[in-house]
Amino acid sequence: MKKKSEIISYIELTIGAVVAAFAIEEFLVPNNIFDGGVTGISMIIAHFLKLPLGAIIFAVNVPFFVIAYQKMGKAFIIKLIYAIALFSIMTGVFEPVENATDEMLLAITYGGVLLGLGVGLVLRGGGCLDGTEVVAVLLNRNLSISTGQIILIFNVVIFAVAGLVFNVDRGMYSLLMYFISSKVIDVVEIGFESTKSVMVITDDGRGLADEIFTKLGRTVTFMRGEGLVSNNQKDILYCVVTRAEIHELKALLDDFPGSTFTTISEVSEIVGSHIKSV
Question: Which of 35, 206, 214, 252 supports an S-S bond with 39, CB 3.0-4.6 Å?
Fold first, then answer.
C-alpha cells in the first residue's frame, strides 16, 4: 500500500511539474506575466540577463534545498528536488516552442488555470515547486502567521517589483493570474491557505503525540474515549495543521506501529493561538 502511494505521489509530481512548466513558458513568459515566489524572481532575472529560465529557477532554489533538508527531513527534500529539477528542465524543453497565445486575457486565464493545476498536483504529491513555500511552512511553525499570509506577502512584493521594473499593468496582470491559479489550487489540493483539523483515535496516544510534535512541531490536545464494542479505553488526539503538512502527517500515521483511526476536516477560521515548537 505504501509503495503504491509513493508511485502515485511521483506520478502527481511529474504531471504537475510538466503542466506548470508548460503554463510558464507558453502563456506567462511570452506575455511578461509573472508568477510569485522564486519562479517570479527567476522570471525577472531571466528577462534581464537573457539566461535560461530553468537554470535560474533551479539555482535560486538551491538554498531552500539546504533549509528543507535541515528542517523537514529526507523524504520531503527528495520530492522537492525532483519536482523543481523536472520543472526547470521542462521550462527549457518548452522554451523554443511557439507560445500558445498573444492575447492577454487568454494568457492570464489559461496560464493561471494550468499553473494552478500543475502546482496543485505537485502539492498533492507531497512536494512543491517554490522554495518560498518551504520558508513559509517553517515560519508558520514558529509564528502566529498562516502559511498563506506569508506567501502572499512574498508575492505582493514580487508583483510590486514587476510593476515598477516593467509597468504597472504587468504587475496587475500578474496579480490577477496569481488569483486565478490560487483558486485552481484550492480545487486541486483542497485549500491553498486553509488549515486542517485532525482527530486521531488510537491506543497509544502519548507515543503518537510525541511523533507529531517531533516531526511536525505541532502539539495536540488529549481526550479520553471508550470503544462501544470493545469497551477499551482510547486516546483521542486533536490538532490543527497546515495544508502543506497533511502529506507528512499521513506518512507519519502510515508508519506508526499502533492502530489509528483518523479524520481530517477543513477549518474555516481559528480564534486564539496554539503552541508550536521553536
Answer: 35
